[in-house]
């Protein structure tokens, strides 16, 4: 099996591990148990076939290191099932350690599952400053909006599955953010920076923003 040092060598080569591969790996690393489902791979990459993405990644790494690729996916992961009986790919420990050594997963990614909930306090004050004074009222106000429903559905189906442990106050599509997005309708990153208050933008999880903001803006543009 490929060692941590060999994986680290592959991570330092853009042909073996491309930028889009690194996006998948950093998201994968942050998932509970380092286990990613086909649905989560599709959510991050936008691909139609998750197995093809994982297999090709393994083959590229193996080809660069000149080792036997086997089934491709087996190079980077183990095929297992989670507690719900869902098929998942579990990242090999050698690869996860190489990601840590490489620095592509910072301390925030490692600590994401144990991030203190106390950070939610400032968000409560922020919500009070918004047009709607409480999160429950925000939900009541926006549920009748087709755009808000689309955002909430995307959050449930994709973002929460990729980042199940993000505190409620740090979610990209928390009620206060949904309310702000529906009100201002930014359709690109520049408009998002200009229209959404800085305090609200800074309160959300950076990994969720990195992985899903463009897709969220795409939903806004489509509506």
From TrEMBL:
This is Uncharacterized protein.
